[in-house]
Design goal:
Blueprint lengths: L1 H8 L10 H10 L3 H8 L6 H11 L1 E3 L14 E3 L2 E3 L3 E3 L12 H12 L3 E3 L7 H7 L5 E5 L5 H13 L5 E4 L9 H6 L11 H4 L2 H8 L14 H12 L11 H14 L9 H8 L4 E6 L2 H9 L4 E4 L13 H12 L5 E3 L6 H9 L4 E4 L1 H32 L13 E3 L3
Parallel strand pairs: 4-11, 5-6, 6-7, 7-8, 8-9, 9-10, 10-11
Antiparallel strand pairs: 1-12, 2-3
The structure holds ligand FNR.
The site of ligand FNR has 22 residues, from helix 3.
Length: about 425
């Protein structure tokens, strides 16, 4: 904190804007229009994105005075690790759209700040490479449950081997939401082979490319002539990157195969048993919004929950994430940690989520903009700013530690 203020007083401008709106604006300038639309956009009219913010605006902090907050402890314990601040980086796919250094830059920044990074299933770089870049920094792996159980097991085993400390299963994206900005720009990164590095580095996936009869290779999707033409063009002029070293024909096959296996809309609670048997790592379900689903997660032996609406990118009209949080917390009744994301922009937001019962929060778009503007250093600065903002808000609200942040600190305001 001292650092941040003394830099400012010395006339040294921050590397990335402190104010979120300015951060987003400069992030936009640093990216292609397609990349910005993909990252900033949500589903439909983006009413859930707005609901996320409104749910924070509706909660107001009532600070308490004269509590001696000279010593402040922002640490929190999660799955056996002590985190310096109650947050982690939510999984974000296709980071190459924001910056060429992509996942590795983010991994180094997270490790340097001591907060966990959740590797995305749709990462731009294979998890092993990112893990290498992180030293002993904490990482988790996020899974999109594939149609191929063999691929699911392979991804989870790789996550174990590269030191991931939890498996996050994202439940809210069995199909991509109705992303209006991307549809209007006719831009879906995956169709261009971006964000499929976890697949093209996976032995089970590569095997299924060789041999169409393998279980990983389900019925090929019926692609329109137009899509096939696009894939062919992409295959022919492959620029390298995620599919480096793979011939253009195989690149096309990889994209097609990815589309065929990527998600499993028929996923049900019973599928989780297979994962429970396969891994000893804590399993965290991401995308829970209803209290009954929270209760069920505990009944099915899950170790944690992330209350999230995917940053408003899936069901437009869905409940604001902070608004959904208290009922889920009540249903779970302290049996497993409840993390929340979607809409966190400031230290006050983190404080409000904790007051309503979250153990920690996930950060999304803000650090992606930091990445776009200034790479690894930009991500670090966004994290460092949020740490300081949170610590100040906690202290100024009269709390010395996270356990002192309770629902009593909030009042609901009409908007
Ligand atoms: C995401 N999110 C996401 N979630 C996930 O489980 N796997 C993924 O690959 C992605 N990819 C992804 C890409 C982009 C560009 C965005 C913005 C989001 C959702 C993410 O983990 C998190 O839930 C939201 O980002 C939280 O909302 P805010 O705070 O970013 O508004």
């Amino acid at each position: 904190q001292q650092d941040i203020y003394s830099k400012g007083l010395g006339g040294e401008k921050p590397l990335v804007p402190v104010d979120f709106h300015e951060l987003e604006r400069q992030g936009c300038d640093a990216m292609s229009p397609e990349a910005y639309a993909y990252i900033a956009g949500g589903a439909g009219l983006e009413s859930t994105m707005r609901a996320n913010r409104e749910s924070f605006d509706r909660q107001r902090i009532v600070p308490r005075m004269l509590n001696d907050v000279s010593e402040r402890d922002t640490t929190v314990n999660l799955f056996g690790r002590t985190l310096p601040s109650p947050f982690m980086l939510s999984p974000i796919g296709v980071l190459e759209m924001a910056h060429g250094d992509a996942d590795q830059a983010v991994g180094r920044a997270a490790a340097a700040e001591g907060i966990p990074m959740i590797f995305s299933n749709q990462a731009s770089q294979p998890m092993e490479q990112v893990a290498d870049a992180m030293g002993d920094g904490a990482r988790w792996f996020q899974l999109y449950w594939s149609k191929s159980d063999d691929l699911v097991r392979s991804l989870v085993s790789r996550a174990e081997s590269c030191g991931c400390e939890a498996i996050v299963v994202t439940l809210d994206t069995t199909m991509l939401g109705w992303r209006t900005r991307d549809l209007d720009l006719a831009y879906l990164p995956f169709l261009r082979g971006k964000g499929i590095a976890q697949y093209t580095s996976d032995p089970v996936f590569l095997e299924s490319l060789k041999n169409p009869s393998q279980p990983g290779n389900m019925a090929r999707p019926k692609l329109s002539l137009e899509t096939l033409k696009t894939l062919k063009q992409i295959g022919q002029s492959w620029p390298g990157g995620a599919l480096d070293g793979i011939s253009s024909g195989r690149a096309m096959a990889a994209v097609q195969e990815f589309i065929a296996v990527y998600s499993k809309p028929s996923l049900t609670w019973d599928d989780l048993k297979m994962l429970r048997d396969h891994t000893r790592l804590p399993i965290v379900l991401k995308g829970i919004q209803h209290p009954d689903d929270g209760r069920k997660a505990v009944d099915y032996g899950m170790d944690g929950i992330i209350v999230s609406n995917h940053g408003g990118r899936q069901v437009d009209g869905a409940i604001g994430s902070l608004e959904a949080l208290p009922e889920v917390v009540e249903a779970v009744a302290g049996r497993v940690p409840v993390i929340m994301d979607s809409g966190i922009r400031t230290g006050a937001d983190v404080f409000k989520a904790l007051a309503l019962g979250a153990t920690a929060v996930g950060l999304g778009r803000p650090w992606v903009y930091g990445l776009a503007i200034a790479g690894e250093a930009g991500v670090r600065e966004v994290i460092a700013n949020l740490k300081t903002d949170f610590e100040l808000t906690m202290g100024l609200s009269g709390c010395k530690s996270i356990s002192e942040i309770t629902p009593e600190a909030l009042r609901r305001a009409d908007l």
